[in-house]
Structures are given as structure tokens and as C-alpha cells.
Amino acid sequence: MDVMEIGLGHSLGLVSKEVSSVLESVIRTDPVALGRVSDLVADAPRVFVLGAGRSGLALRMTAMRLMHLGLDVYVVGETTTPAIAKSDLLLVASGSGTTSGIVRAAETAARVGATVVAITTDGTSPLARLSDSATLIVPAAGKLDRSGEASTQYAGSLFEQAIVLIGDALFHALWKRSAQDADELWPRHSNLE
To answer: CA 193 to CA 191: how far, in whole Å?
Structure first.
């Protein structure tokens, strides 16, 4: 095999093409859902995020940026996270939409009257059914798909990359909507590093 076919540059190009393609699909498939997600997050008194593994890490990044905007944001599972309540929002991600802990949390949120926003690859999954008409479907391979058809990357990487970029785009849209400038956000950055 040629080094150009297995090198880092080749892999970066491949990842870039796959990410661009999947995000274009998300934009084209349901632009109304994208707007609805932005509105729901902006209007929520408190936002809670939850994902497992790398999906959870990606949503932690989103939580940080939403906090920089001044939103009241919590990462589910942290010791200081309060109980979710009516009118709060739970932002969850699960490629399969069947991750048991994520689905249970979404059921709890729905039961108390919170809004559920889901990012998943399966619009018919239990998680998607629990979201309040605010499901973002990412057409990426699940972590067990080894076919290479949806993505040639390993174990759900494309889905997780999409979560990071959807989170950053959500932050950017809400930031522009807020009319705050970067200097207003900066004081909210951690100073205990």
C-alpha cells in the first residue's frame, strides 16, 4: 500500500470529506429541526447534557460553550448537577438511540415535563421518539457498523465528530442571536486553570 494512501494527510482529507458530507445532509434533511433546537435551547431556563463515551465528551464541549454564553448548563452525572424539572431541556446524544442510560434519562426528563432534544443516527429509535419533535438525525455509521458504507472511520467516529460541530454551530447561532461580543463572554472562561 502506498504511504500516501495510509498517511495522516490522506486520513485528514478523508475525515474532512466525510464530516462535510454528513453535516450537509443534516442541514438539508431537516432545517426546521435545526431552528427548533436553537429556539428550545435559547428559551430553556436550564440546559442539561448527557451522552456516553465520546458522545458525552462532545456534549461536555457544547455545555462549556453554552456556559460561556451565560446559559445555566449542567452535565448529567456530575455531583453538583441538580434535578431536572419542568421546562428545563435535556440535550442527549446516542448514535443508536438505544443506549439504556441515555434513554432512561430522557424518559425521566419527559416524565417531569422537561424538553428532550436528541442527536442520533436513528430517527425511529426509542430516544428519537422521546424527543419533543427536536431530533437531529446524523446519517453516520453506528459504532458496530464495519461495512464502510456510511463511513470508513472506526466505531462511530463520524457521529461523534458531527456532535462536536453541531454543538459549536449551536453555540455560534445562539451567540450571534444574543448580540454579545467576545469581550462579554471572556469573563466566563475558567480562571482556576
So the answer is: 6
Cβ atoms of 88 and 109 within 8 Å: the answer is yes
What is the C-alpha radius of gyration for the chain, rounded to an integer number of angstroms?
17
Catalytic (active site) residue 160? yes
Catalytic site residue from 24, 107, 160, 193: 160
Edge to edge, what strands does the sheet with 115-120 contain?
73-75, 47-51, 89-93, 115-120, 135-137
Q: Report pLDDT digits (tens) over 159-192.
A: 999 999 999 999 999 999 999 999 999 999 998 9
Q: For residue 59, which amino acid is it? A: L
The per-residue pLDDT for range 90-133, each reduced to its tens digit, is 999 999 999 999 999 999 999 999 999 999 999 999 999 999 77
132-161 core/surface letters (b: 16 or more CB in 10 A; e: else): bebbbbbbbbbbeeeeeebbebebbbbbbb
Q: Which runs of E-coded beta strand occur in the chain? A: 47-51, 73-75, 89-93, 115-120, 135-137
Distance between CA atoms of residues 56 and 99, nearest Å: 12
